Amino acid sequence: MTANKAWTLASHPTGWVTEENFRLVESPLPSPKEGEILVRNLWLSLDPYMRGRMSQQKSYVRGVEVGEVMTGETAGEVLESRHPAFRRGDKVTVHAGWQLYWCGKGELATKVDDRAAPLSYYLGCLGMPGRTAYFGLKEIGQPKPGETVVVSAASGAVGSVVGQLAKHWGARVVGIAGGARKCAYVKDELGFDACVDYKAGNLYRDLKEAAPKGVDVYFENVGGEVLDTLLRLMNPFSRIVVCGLISDYNAVEPYGVRNFRAILVNRIRVQGMIVFDWRDRYGEANAALMDLYRSGKLKYRESVLEGIEAAPRGLIGLLRGENFGKQLVKLA
Amino acid sequence: MTANKAWTLASHPTGWVTEENFRLVESPLPSPKEGEILVRNLWLSLDPYMRGRMSQQKSYVRGVEVGEVMTGETAGEVLESRHPAFRRGDKVTVHAGWQLYWCGKGELATKVDDRAAPLSYYLGCLGMPGRTAYFGLKEIGQPKPGETVVVSAASGAVGSVVGQLAKHWGARVVGIAGGARKCAYVKDELGFDACVDYKAGNLYRDLKEAAPKGVDVYFENVGGEVLDTLLRLMNPFSRIVVCGLISDYNAVEPYGVRNFRAILVNRIRVQGMIVFDWRDRYGEANAALMDLYRSGKLKYRESVLEGIEAAPRGLIGLLRGENFGKQLVKLA
Fold first, then answer.
1. Can you tell me the ipTM of this complex?
2. pTM
């Protein structure tokens, strides 16, 4: 009989995540009860927020406890349905966690159309990262045509959509990424106006050159020194969308932001965001992203690891910035 | 013949301001040209923003150069008018700088009514500090009835108005001040619900006790450790009004803010403000503050030094938090 495999949390990390923080466990396949569906997960999404869930620090949702299945979103197909809205073969996304099968209430899953776009895209540019980019940029960043938008982690799942949406909405767009290869991709493939390599060691000077009129919107995914550098480049009445602070997630001591005074001097608006605050408007974002995708203006790149065994390694690489594009694990 | 006396900047300070950074100079009294007025300054306002103007660091307005008269607002009376809107004896406020007399275009002065309130109040609770409190709290802080508002430098010119406005608008109000005497004043005289002494050494614990439901609006006047502590206490969707960062103004190395991540986790909105961004709406603030004052709900305290010679000493004391209430110099 087929068994389920799941990664559980073995211990809370201190500083960098290691493979020892996870344990792979097997269990029998559950049977759906009335109102439930059984899903075979085909793709697992790996995302920076997972680092927060592994920690015991207070965050916006409860963290994963030792022994629990690691949290995460998957895309898969319905194997068995006891819910009227689903039938065998339907494709869905669901917060199934790091496991091969998931069984639960049908209401927790979202049907997606894998003829309109590849199934895995619903975990990326057409899914949570895409919606994060959409609402963060539209509702907090509020770029006006001609303004300069800077986004960090520009080749990543969120950053790549932020930049393409900002271009679509008429802004000048500058990416920040690690290494010449990612920067070339951001500029040549994604169509950003410029991309600065933060590993080149001249971030302030290079950004000043790439954004000669200063920065009106900064979409923050990384934090730390990059944030401190951007604070020096922000224009009066500019906006900073605080979406992620990945450089802090693994730090034992958080980074001390020195240029906070720029917020006062330039009347910057800095605002934190979590995409699920807009869950009532997901349909709006999904439609806008699908339109952009259909018109060929939403380029996207995936970094795929094979087999559930690779998941911890994938997350560790993601937190170190080793992935190139949206990080996925192909489960079947 | 009467001579003018003025404090000019002798040198830019590094770290703490000293009396050696200023030079007192005498000059003959100017005569107003067509369209100008001559004002005898009676009160000079000392304010934390002056530290910024003394520095060579980039700020929202150009700083004072060595040899120029120190910037500052005064309240005084018109001695001679060649402007149709003013006559001898009119009371005005004007950005005259640190000097006994001022001569310039009538449009730069604002007539005030010293029968409605003492003249000096137009430099404080009914003037720029009052308007700063009004717009910062109303437009950025946006407290709702029942929410908790915390304000630092609570016994000061801005902080005292912030707290009283917040009470008037239905919030629970907690002040932060230095020392038991200031705290007693904030609670007993200004009517705040609580006041925490940051010098007592238990800021986090004491604030947690004073704001058991967390903080919805923090009106920031000081920065540094106090800001970092507040970040730990902010509620989801709370707001931080960045009005001043006085603890940083004299620091050679700016303070590194460690709890920036709270902005993300709790979706805090942090926004810098400068009152003159609302200059088109000063009338609205003046009317609201005058109403509150007339109804007896705007308590106010002044700390007065005598004679223009005392001005540098007064600013140094203000930056060290030694004043108790709005710091003024009585010029005549």
1. 0.92
2. 0.93
